[in-house]
Amino acid sequence: MQNYAFSLSFLLIFSAFSQNNLERVVLNFEKDPVNKNATISFLAINLQNDEIIADINANKSLTAASTTKLFPTATAIEVLGSNKKTITRIYYSGEINSKGELNGDIWIRGGGDVSLGSKYFSKETQELQFLNDWADSLLQKGIKKINGSVIADASEFGYNGTPKGWHESDIGNYYGAFAGGLNFYDNTIKLILKTNTPGTKAQLIEIFPKVPSLSISNTVLAAQVQGDEASIFGAPFSLNRKITGKLPANRERFIVKGSMPDPENLLVQEMVKTLELRGLLVSGGSKTVRLNHLSKPNYEKDLKLLFQQNSKTIKEIAFWTNFKSVNLFAEGLVNLLGFYSNGDGSTSSGLKIIDDFWKNKINTSNLILNDGSGLSRLNAISAQHFCELLKYMSTSKNYDDFKSTFPVAGKNGTISTLCKGGSGEGRVFAKSGTLNNTKSYAGYIDSKSEKKIAFAIIVNDFSCSSGEIKNKIETILNVLSEY
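RE: above sequence
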């Protein structure tokens, strides 16, 4: 009994010390000069007894950057299921004669697959292998010539481009690629530039995949910089792009990644190119529903299904969405929620499904979502919203699948350097978020005392660098990991 009493006394003292230490660290963070003009929303709760461990303006809704991705990933796993796959279907109209000539058209019906030809699911340089696989399928069906066109149809997901609140400085770059009914190669184009001595203009030598009629204004300069300091500007569906900024001097090939102007159109152009390289001529070339103002056919009644391409699972897509913070995948999950719920794969449709799902499960007061990725500056989410979502998911049958999408502090993903060497290393499972003057983290902590903690912290308008505010947040997470 004496040993038990001693242990209990020690635990009480340790618990009090941990609480006092946490209060001190949180107060110091709140009063830190870099946060003098900042707005903070922070909450940590004990999932085992609903105890509020720490709280700073928990109900304050702020711009949360990429932690926003927790909403589409959690909702997609819950509503669609971890093993759900979407489908890209290839049909034909008309008839195939005895010579193997299709007197009709090939239709590619988009199903919102963001994993098609993605670098996250393909070996390097093999991302476009699916086009050869499609060509093989047509040849195996006995089609040797198409006396018509190959038509791409992404219309069931709309043509609205980027979600509301995305900044023009983002949408031309690879991380600002929009999701639609047909996506491939991460909706990215690669601009390969050559640089010479500092101060000289960089030379644009190649674009891959090649976008016909794409016009690029290039003012990039070679400079004594270490990495990519170039930016690409250009609107969705526009064939005009501008690239500015600086790149390291004296490089033979430097890749700058931009968003694909029109994935629906480029996909069908690449398909026709692949078919013709395989000897399968297409007399009518490529067309799209949007550009050629075509009406969507009655696929089940008027066309015949040739084959289909299955996507990766929702769980696999959600993993990369959170682990590497892939904006395109987050937006694609939003679209799929709308598409499978009501046949409308637009952003607005998907966001309504997210709202409908959570409004009876958490307090959604002052929760505003304009996208799934967090690029929108018009989003407003509080630490309370995140913690209530995290708490709900901790009781879901899908909890393990959801938690498996989180990077681990000090170990991997987007938080591989967070808490490195500290108490939080290996104990913090979190989604991070970063925009100009915004830093956020939300997730779970398995503390040293075996407490299960949900937390979220969002800081807007701090007056230091992103790296400095990260280090200050780290202090809180390390103490929570010891709590």
